[in-house]
Amino acid sequence: MANVSIKENVYWIGVNDRTTDLFEGIWPISKEGVSYNSYLIKDKKKMIIDLSKAIKTDVFFDHIAEEVPLDEIDYVVVNHVEPDHTGVLRTLKRMAPRLTILCTPKARQMLENYYGPGGNIREVKNGEELDTGDRVLKFVYTPFVHWPETMMTYDTKEKILFSCDGFGSYGALRGAIFDDGCKDLAFYTQESLRYYVNIVAKFSKPVLNAIEKLKDVPVEIIAPSHGLIWRKTPGTIIDLYKKWAEYATGKTEPGVTLVYGSMYGNTEMMMNAVAQGITGEGVDVEIFDAARTHVSYILPHLWIKNSVMIGAPTYEGGLFPPVAQVLEMAALKRVINKKAAMFGSYSWSGGALKRIKEIIEPVGWDLTDTFEFAGGPLGDDLNKGEEFGAAFARRVK
Question: Which of 99, 154, 226, 250 is buried most deeply by CB count within 10 Å?
Answer without folding.
Answer: 226
